Amino acid sequence: xxxxxxxxxxxxxxxLVGTVVCVVLLTVGGAWWAASxxxxxxxxxxxxxxxxxxxxxxxxxxxxxxxxxxxxxVAETSVSQWQLHVDAMNQLVAGEITLNQAVAxxxxxxxxxxxxxxxxxxxxxxxxKGDYACRQGQDPALDRCQRSVHxxxxxxxxxxxxxxxxxHHVMDxxxxxxxxxxxxxxxxxxxHFWRQGIGELNRYHDALRQxxxxxx
Length: 216
Known about the structure:
This protein has helices spanning 13-26, 58-93, 99-110, 113-128, 140-178, 183-211. By secondary structure, it is an all-alpha fold. The chain has one domain (57-211). Helix 1 runs parallel beside helix 3 and helix 2 packs antiparallel against helix 3 (99-110).
């Protein structure tokens, strides 16, 4: 499926309503209720660095660039599941796939979804605890490295937004199964997260493409 999504318009509004009800009823898995609440205690995002006059070296930026590798890699696994989930809904509403095909895609997103969300939460928390001193300098090599770190930082923050939305949708499944929210509430929330997810995923993939292959 293409990564970039557009909000499709259903020819029949009832198709969307019926589809989402099917999403709620057919994609809820017993394992989803175990999703952790790592987002609820998520701290502020890490900064690329302060603006003090302390000497900065290429090695300072390489240290942060290397620290970004794991959270970026782990984020991609969870973001990919959310992308598949959203794309299936887009295609279903546009009449490009059948409900059975959409359900098959949604079932794929259930595989280890909780574990992948949790893994990103751990990687994100570990990364933000780092003490980084990567700032722009006068040396061309340092400047290139700093730009690469900054671009990857943007991707990480956009990944955080996307996984956050995915996490909320997963937790809604738990709430629906436990009777904490009604099917009507779950439907309204899913429609909101679906639309929000389209924008967040597009921004993430746009930023990811702009990072290129530049290394420190």
